[in-house]
Design brief:
Distance between the termini of chain B: 60 Å
Number of helices of chain A: 19
Radius of gyration of chain B: 18 Å
Largest interface: A-B, 55 and 45 residues
Oligomer: heterodimer
Number of strands of chain A: 2
Number of strands of chain B: 0
Strand content of chain B: under 5%
Order of helices and strands of chain A: HHEEHHHHHHHHHHHHHHHHH
Largest sheet of chain B: none
Order of helices and strands of chain B: HHHHHHHHH
Radius of gyration of chain A: 22 Å
Structural class of chain B: mainly alpha
Strand order of the largest sheet of chain A: 1-2
Helix content of chain B: over 70%
Number of helices of chain B: 9
Shape of chain B: globular
Distance between the termini of chain A: 30 Å
Strand content of chain A: under 5%
Largest sheet of chain A: 2 strands, antiparallel
Number of domains of chain A: 1
């Protein structure tokens, strides 16, 4: 099939759906103003069992078919991802528009992850939004804004993984910040406005540093004799990186790692992450945590190839391992003291991102394959966990762990899915996070004294995080439940079950994806 | 243009560029800060146009003019509008930076230290290709650092936006001085992103005023662990 078409579709399809949503606005039901009383109901001091605070609305707004248009783009992304994967494995990287769009194995892998996570998030969104509307927390207009922004967000993420130009990569990642700002502040409450402000200021400033880094790399590339049109082209830079000036490159790479690290939730510019993830609507948290963080990390993976060729592997290794360990320590510490389950999931994302960064620091083929597998496994499990947590918030009206009890007895489907997702996040077999953490650990222990110590340290910290996650979740799931069982049909659960099944399947065997995974690891330097 | 005149004009533009950043630290009235910021936009455009004229690259001069329109015209206009909205809504207390985290004397001292730091950090950059333009490169980095400093020490939402934009101006100046600007498509994307970011921040400021009744960042303390 036409390469240019395949490369354009993942970006164009979400944009087209966004336009469709924006255009249907004219005939939407009358826009009741979004009310700003989104604060959860003030709950009594004692831990309340779930049903006491739950006024289940009788009348649900009828589901309009337009709610399901959102599924078009994840399906298109998945389809293009698989076709590109097949093409890339057969014929090598494809590119169009003089390198602006380019697909190698890593691109195909990331497209598949983005598509899968988007399928979970967009599939569970209609039920979530219908409930928000029934509870009077959102209007038809807010729902339309939501759909337009989510689709634009998907387009920006696809552009970020599909471009071969480092400047365009920066533009796309900054565009995700801008689009998601309104999604984080979607509810317009005090807390969500605060989260949105911190998110935009910290991420924009952080990622501005990455742009400064990009400019410095460009400067070094120009003086290495690379022509203006190709001096930001990733394959060209990666191939000729040994000619870059080391001092300038070192400065540039440091800035890039710090800058994109801000977007990936790594220290030192991570402060936005727990706030934004806890305030955004559930499906948006799922997308941000499941793929946006790893899309930013992929940018670091790409720059790592350039840095390794220009400076030798030790520089990025020390930098990434240090950042990963510090982030992991912080996340584990804050998980221990956590009282809010959405923030708990957010800190768990930081934990997993630092494990991926550690995999990148190790840099052997095994470590890189494991890191990429971890991106996929974490994306699937975390998006399921976030979507389920959104449903729990709707059912209980609180995000405090101490006030949620007996979920399994009360709503077995939601509680069960949440529980299994946390089990997956804690890297139990058969889920793929087990395989990938094992892979990172094995690669780390085989990689020399310094990295072996770093790996053991991070395994210890991951264990602490796991213990904290497990105790908190048990508290939420177990306990006395109500006598009468809830209506057994929870809407919008199929994408979550599907996601968990995919995560488990990946853990058992990567099947036809094995070649793609190895090719992707090879594309970013795992020779 | 003779080489001497070019160097002098370039140094003058860069000097103005740095001086306006320092002035932002010195001033308390937000309206005055916005005016100074607009002046900095003019200086930035002048740097680009001078480089374009020197290298006989008229596309670069065109980009410089575009950057000038954005940074000296559109962005200050947006900020003035936000400021007018705040003043109409809440009165005079909203338009002054009341309690910066660090006082003016200490801020100016910090700016001096940051400039020194920028010169130290930029040594390898200048050594790679010593020309009049790259010798002025530390100025861009100094403005980046000062922008960061404004961002973390100022307590008004709008002052933080100015900090972010100083940071961004600094990066653009660095790009012009080091490599006569990044490729056009990237420059366009970056300008568009910055414009949108400022629009988003402006809307969020309005929402913040609706929700909190003020734009004091210190009031944003509901979310914590």
């Amino acid at each position: 099939m036409n390469t240019a078409l395949l490369l354009t579709t993942p970006v164009a399809a979400p944009l087209a759906v966004a336009a469709a949503y924006a255009l249907t606005g004219a005939r939407a039901p009358h826009p009741a103003r979004t009310c700003s009383h989104g604060h959860p109901v003030v709950v009594a001091e004692t831990p309340v069992t779930v049903p006491a605070v739950e006024p289940e609305p009788e009348r649900r707004p009828q589901w309009c078919p337009s709610a399901w248009w959102g599924l078009v783009s994840p399906v298109a992304i998945l389809l293009c991802g698989s076709l590109l994967a097949a093409g890339v494995l057969d014929e090598g990287p494809a590119s169009a528009f003089s390198g602006l769009l380019r697909a190698d194995a890593l691109t195909a892998w990331m497209l598949l992850v983005v598509g899968a996570v988007a399928l979970i998030a967009c599939g569970s969104a209609p039920a979530y939004l219908a409930d928000e509307e029934a509870a009077g927390r959102a209007s038809g207009r807010a729902r339309r804004h939501y759909h337009v922004l989510v689709q634009a967000f998907l387009a920006a993420m696809c552009l970020a993984v599909m471009t071969g130009n480092l400047g365009v990569l920066w533009v796309a990642i900054e565009a995700t910040t801008i689009v998601t700002a309104f999604l984080v502040g979607h509810r317009r409450t005090r807390t969500s406005v605060e989260a949105a402000w911190k998110y935009v200021v910290i991420c924009s400033a952080g990622i501005a540093l990455a742009f400064l880094g990009t400019v410095l790399i460009y400067y070094a590339a120009r003086h290495a004799g690379i022509a203006e049109a190709w001096a930001l082209d990733w394959p060209t830079l990666a191939a000729r990186a040994d000619r870059l000036d080391p001092a300038v490159t070192r400065l540039g790479i440091t800035l890039v790692v710090l800058g994109f690290g801000a977007k990936a939730g790594l220290i030192p510019l991570h402060a936005w992450l727990p706030d934004a993830h806890s305030q955004a609507p559930a499906a948006v948290s799922a997308l941000m945590s499941g793929v946006l963080l790893s899309v930013a990390l992929t940018a670091i993976l790409r720059y790592r190839v350039i840095a390794d060729a220009a400076l030798g592997p030790d520089f990025t290794r020390t930098l990434l391992a240090g950042i990963a360990l510090l982030t992991l320590a912080l996340a584990a510490g804050l998980l221990l003291a956590q009282r809010d389950y959405k923030r708990m999931l957010a800190y768990s994302s930081m934990e997993h991102m630092s494990l991926i960064a550690l995999g990148a620091a190790i840099g052997s083929p095994l470590a890189l394959s494991a890191a990429l597998l971890h991106i996929a496994g974490h994306g699937l499990a975390k998006s399921v966990a976030f979507c389920a947590s959104g449903r729990i918030l709707q059912l209980t009206g609180t995000t405090r762990i101490g006030r949620v009890r007996g979920l399994l007895a009360h709503v077995p489907s939601v509680g069960g899915v949440f529980g299994i997702a946390v089990v997956a996040l804690a890297a139990f077999p058969p889920f793929s996070l087990f395989a990938s953490e094992l892979g990172i650990a094995r690669a780390g222990l085989a990689a020399g004294t310094g990295l072996a110590w770093a790996t053991s340290g991070s395994l210890l910290l991951a264990l602490i995080a796991f213990a904290a996650l497990a105790t908190r979740t048990t508290h939420m799931l177990l306990g006395p439940g109500p006598v009468q069982p809830e209506s057994p049909t929870e809407p919008g659960m199929w994408p979550l079950t599907l996601g968990l099944a995919a995560c488990a399947a990946l853990g058992i065997a990567t099947g036809p994806l094995t070649d793609l995974l190895h090719a992707a690891a090879q594309a970013i330097g795992g020779h | 243009m003779s080489a001497g005149l070019y160097t002098e004009l370039l140094d003058l533009a860069c000097g103005t560029f740095l001086l306006t950043a320092v002035l932002v630290l010195w001033l308390r009235e937000l309206a005055a800060i916005v005016r100074v910021f607009a002046l900095q936009g003019v200086a930035l455009a002048a740097i680009a146009v001078l480089l374009g004229a020197h290298e006989q690259r008229w596309d670069l001069a065109g980009v410089g003019l575009g950057v000038g329109v954005l940074r000296a015209g559109v962005l200050p206009y947006l900020m003035r509008r936000a400021l007018a909205g705040a003043a109409a809504d809440r009165g005079s207390e909203e338009v002054r930076e009341t309690q910066p985290l660090v006082n003016v004397a200490a801020s100016l001292l910090t700016a001096a230290l940051l400039t020194l730091l920028a010169y130290a950090v930029a040594r390898p950059l200048t050594q790679l290709n010593p020309t009049p333009a790259t010798r002025a490169l530390p100025v861009g980095l100094a403005v980046v650092l000062i922008g960061f400093f404004v961002l973390v020490t100022r307590r008004r939402a709008l002052a933080q936006v100015v900090g972010f934009l100083l940071l961004d101006n600094g990066i653009t100046a660095t790009a012009f001085l080091a490599t006569s600007g990044v490729p056009l498509i990237v420059e366009l994307g970056v300008s568009f992103d910055v414009l949108l970011a400022v629009l988003v921040l402006q809307i969020l400021t309005t929402r913040m005023r609706e929700a909190f009744g003020t734009t004091d960042i210190d009031d944003l303390r509901e979310l914590h662990d």
